[in-house]
Design goal:
five-stranded antiparallel β-sheet; 37 strands; mainly beta; globular; Methylamine Dehydrogenase, Chain H; Crtac1; VCBS repeat protein; UnbV_ASPIC; 3 helices; 498 residues
């Protein structure tokens, strides 16, 4: 970080992070070609007890909901039936968000087939919600944002190969869709051209404008495609005249975070071979130099020198030193001979501008065919634990033993707004760190809820919220260990513990 340097210089050298495996109910993401991709995890507190649940896609298997019964120091997840999904398969992933503006988070469920909306209710009750336009595309990406004057979110749905095209699969990428609020649910608008999207994220870009980023798989678009950026206000794709010349990747996942304290978010794009970290500069992006340590091109264990395959990526401060570290979930597509078969996950520790691989030492270098994942505090002890959904192998969960250092977890909340969860708000810490409230990114799954910040040796943090309407709240101070909401009260801000 830049502005956080004074804080970090006051810290002792960070302790090595260690994770312990957690026994969880067996769940496998499985299936044929339609489930070579997908396999996401959605993480959110669906019962209001302050601990997040995990919804994991199953592909040809049923999805699973893991209720969180943890206590500090012990992660305990228990499988619970989802009556609304009884008999439903083909699920590729899911994202939690408030779809109907009732102040309770719901779930957008992606499928190879008709997508589903599940309304959140008491005790994690999920019931099907009407309103989606008809369709049976192969959906593999999702994001959402709020537009002024609308009482519900606008949704972006990313589709993969057009399974109905007899010329496929190569060169037959399906169109994506924008779903805008209508009197009855949402109405669909095509977003073309589509280049086989595997991740989407609506967030502020290097121009500091709300932009839809689409990560695309060149394996199926073959040629003529690239990563895409679409200006949300102007409703147009960006090009070289905007400072955007999209790279061509086997795009799998997106992770966005301001890691240098300049107020602009860097973007990690997973792929085959080099994993691409792009550094935000005013108005545009530049690729991180190889010496940054984030390319993770080949396996870091074993002797397989073939290129790696990256899927889910996520930032999080796993050692609580005030610097965001990076998880990249890895795994062969299936039996792709040109790519590494024993392909361990990456856990890249941020050392203040460069990154160091520690997954093996930390105990999380699984060589299963990883897909989706999450970094989340499952047991409420202030440290980020890890979830990985695997293809053709059981899902894995690890508990962070917790490094020395403190943390906070905060969530903007505006009870007077139609979007109480303040999608598009930005949390700003006085040390220079910032975090945008967004839905999307990763690979086929994401999180909603409190935003975790490591504090190192600091006893408290001072922070403010820039609300979606542009208003900046006063600064409040919260103590180390605080977990709760930042509640908007007129022009004021109140820290309310869970």
């Amino acid at each position: 970080m830049i502005r956080a340097a004074a804080l970090l210089l006051a810290l002792p050298a960070s302790a090595e992070v260690r994770f312990d495996p957690v026994l969880v109910p067996e769940h496998v993401y499985a299936g044929g070609w339609e489930h070579f991709v997908g396999g996401g995890a959605a993480v959110w507190d669906c019962d209001g007890d302050g601990l997040p649940e995990v919804f994991a896609a199953g592909g040809a298997n049923p999805a699973t909901l893991l209720r969180n019964r943890s206590e500090p120091g012990e992660v305990r997840l228990e499988a619970e039936a989802i009556p609304a999904l009884d008999g439903v398969t083909g699920i590729t992933g899911a994202y939690p968000l408030d779809l109907d503006a009732d102040g309770v988070r719901d779930l957008f469920v992606m499928r190879a087939g008709r997508n589903l909306l599940l309304r959140g209710g008491p005790g994690c009750a999920l019931s099907e919600m009407a309103g989606l336009p008809a369709g049976d595309a192969w959906t593999t990406a999702f994001t959402a944002w709020r537009e002024r004057g609308e009482d519900r979110p606008t949704l972006a749905v990313g589709n993969y190969v057009d399974r109905g095209d007899p010329e496929g699969p190569f060169g037959t990428c399906d169109d994506n869709r924008i779903l805008r609020p209508a009197a009855e649910g949402w109405r669909a608008e095509p977003l073309a051209p589509g280049f086989c999207a595997l991740s989407m994220l609506a967030a502020r870009d290097a121009r500091d404008r709300p932009t839809l980023r689409i990560s695309n798989d060149r394996h199926y678009y073959v040629s003529g495609g690239a990563e895409q950026m679409w200006d949300i206000a102007e409703r147009r794709f960006l090009g070289p005249g905007d400072g955007w010349d999209g790279p061509s990747l086997w795009g799998m996942g997106i992770a966005s975070r301001d890691i240098d304290g300049d107020g602009l978010a860097e973007v990690m794009l997973t792929s085959m071979g080099d994993q691409l970290l792009t550094l935000a500069r005013p108005g545009g992006y530049e690729d991180a130099p190889y010496g940054t340590g984030t390319h993770a091109t080949t396996p870091h264990t074993g002797d397989d020198g073939r290129p790696s395959t990256g899927w889910h990526a996520e930032w999080g401060d796993v050692d609580l030193d005030g610097l965001d570290d990076l998880l990249i979930v890895k795994g062969n597509v299936d039996q792709m001979p040109g790519m590494a078969m024993e392909d361990p996950n990456n856990l890249l520790m941020n050392e203040g501008g460069t990154f160091r691989e520690v997954a093996a030492e930390a105990g999380v270098a699984s060589t299963h065919r990883g897909r989706g994942g999450a970094l989340a505090d499952l047991d409420g002890d202030g440290a980020l634990d890890m979830v990985v959904v695997n293809r053709r192998a059981p899902m894995e969960v690890w508990r962070n033993r917790r490094a020395e250092g403190g943390s906070i977890a905060v969530e903007p909340f505006d009870p007077a707004a139609s979007d109480a969860f303040a999608l598009g708000a930005v949390i700003r810490l006085e040390d220079g760190r910032s975090r945008e409230v967004a839905v999307g990114g990763g690979h086929a799954g994401g999180q909603a809820g409190p935003h975790h910040f490591g504090l190192g040796a600091a006893a408290s943090a001072r922070l403010a919220v820039e609300w979606p309407d542009g208003a900046l709240s006063p600064t409040v101070e919260v103590p180390e260990g605080f977990r709760g909401r930042l509640v908007r009260e007129g022009d004021g801000l109140r820290a309310e513990p869970y």
